[in-house]
């Protein structure tokens, strides 16, 4: 993460000027919209955010943005203005492509918002002249109309992988569910999880932490049989292998046999295994319930607090996921 001293420190009026330079509708250039943008650019470490989030820019709920307005901007914001923030500012900012909404369902209580990476770069750029140039470039793209906005709404999916910048997966339901596995499953059921590998439908090699893969003696070039996600819990010396099922492909008995071959070397080094199939909701889970292998876990993103264990007699000595 870039240190605060190396980033721009803008106030609300400066943010409104930037929104004007981007060519947004005058009705959207309000103090409330500026507060949303300023909050979602904030990189200071905070408590009380969603699990796994340390900074507002990592993902902020409307509640977090309103708290920022009170504590950081000195604004008197009533709790009943939540809908105004959502409808009058965040929704149109999402429609314009400046903000990305992360939401599993219509009433998802853990819905959060992020700035589009280009807007975050604009907001944190320390050099005024470079910031003006970036604003002009983005304004030119915005002026291209609905096609650009549709492109922004289909923006790549950011995933925090423990580096200064997130890794971006190609757009789509599969990538969104992959991000949920990293940000919600791992943060709930693993101690200080590390991302070893992420598969991607567009980028052949996906994300690979090659240092960890070498340490685990995992094959680096073999991509045909790799799962969607590989996570590492060093505290428990446990490797978590995840298949993401947006439409097909749970960890069946035959698939588990393939994965067993992949992780032979980490097992030889003393790492324990956990196989997990991630589903977006129960409806998709029901379609594949008969294919799921015994001895594996199932995690449903729409109900992230629990894990379903398809246990066997050998599981009597197995440690359940840590919370």
Automatic annotation (TrEMBL):
Pfam families: BsuBI_PstI_RE (PF06616), BsuBI_PstI_RE_N (PF17728). Residues 12-124 form the BsuBI/PstI restriction endonuclease HTH domain. Coiled coil: none annotated. GO terms for biological process: DNA restriction-modification system. Signal peptide: none annotated. Residues 157-311 form the BsuBI/PstI restriction endonuclease domain. One of its GO terms (molecular function) is magnesium ion binding. It comes from the Bacteria. InterPro entries: BsuBI/PstI_C_sf, BsuBI/PstI_N, BsuBI/PstI_N_sf, Restrct_endonuc_II_BsuBI_C. This is Restriction endonuclease BsuBI.
């Amino acid at each position: 993460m870039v240190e605060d001293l190396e980033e721009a420190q803008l106030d609300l009026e400066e943010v409104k000027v930037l929104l004007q330079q981007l060519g947004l509708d005058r009705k959207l250039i309000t103090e409330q919209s500026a507060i949303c943008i300023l909050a979602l650019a904030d990189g200071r470490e905070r408590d009380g955010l969603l699990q796994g989030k340390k900074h507002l820019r990592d993902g902020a709920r409307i509640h977090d943005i309103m708290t920022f307005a009170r504590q950081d901007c000195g604004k008197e914001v009533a709790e009943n203005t939540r809908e105004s923030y959502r409808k009058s500012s965040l929704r149109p900012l999402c429609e314009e492509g400046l903000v990305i909404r992360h939401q599993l369902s219509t009433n998802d209580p853990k819905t959060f918002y992020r700035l589009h990476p280009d807007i975050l770069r604009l907001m944190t750029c320390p050099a005024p002249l470079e910031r003006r140039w970036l604003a002009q470039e983005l304004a030119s793209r915005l002026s291209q109309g609905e096609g650009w906005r549709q492109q922004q709404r289909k923006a790549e999916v950011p995933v925090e992988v423990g580096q200064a910048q997130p890794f971006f997966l190609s757009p789509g339901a599969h990538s969104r569910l992959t991000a949920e596995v990293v940000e919600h499953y791992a943060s709930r059921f693993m101690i200080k999880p590390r991302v070893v590998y992420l598969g991607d439908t567009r980028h052949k090699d996906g994300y690979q932490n090659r240092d960890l893969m070498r340490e685990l003696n995992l094959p680096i070039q073999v991509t045909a049989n790799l799962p969607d996600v590989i996570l590492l819990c060093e505290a428990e010396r446990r490797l978590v292998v995840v298949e993401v099922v947006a439409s097909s492909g749970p960890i069946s008995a035959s698939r588990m046999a393939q994965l067993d071959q992949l992780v032979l070397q980490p097992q030889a080094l003393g790492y324990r295994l956990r196989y997990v199939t991630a589903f977006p909701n129960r409806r998709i889970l029901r379609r594949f319930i008969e294919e799921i292998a015994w001895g594996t876990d199932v995690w449903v993103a729409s109900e992230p607090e629990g894990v379903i264990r398809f246990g066997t007699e050998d599981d009597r000595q197995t440690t359940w996921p840590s919370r």
